[in-house]
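Look at one record.

>
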Amino acid sequence: MKSSGPLTVLYDGRSGFHGRTSRILKRLDRSHRRLLMTNTAMRKFEPQLYDRPVSELKVGFHVRLPDDTWHHGPEAFRQACSAVGLWPLVLPTRLPILKQLCDAGYQMLSIFSSPRAASPSSSRREYVVSKSTLTQPDSMV
């Protein structure tokens, strides 16, 4: 049974993966208006409109169907892609083995593209050399 009305899509705009994917979905949906896209990283985001915990909504990719059913993560992507006409690409990802692989791939992409993964403290080490550890070259006599 197909529900009428647009899907509400909530995405974390700070994440590179979710941000790029949402821009692609917006472009595909430009003329149809089947998706209502909301960036949860924006200051004007109002979480009280969605009756969900703020900590849950601010991370990842969520879809609310017209019948108030919520989906998160890979299933949310499947719902949004199907709504914009990419159902032939989504169909194989529902098969048992491919579904598990796609779900694992989504988890890896969302982990590595999260803002926390890009912070210097978690992914890179910064070395600081103090002046006391620097040695001056021997002077030539």
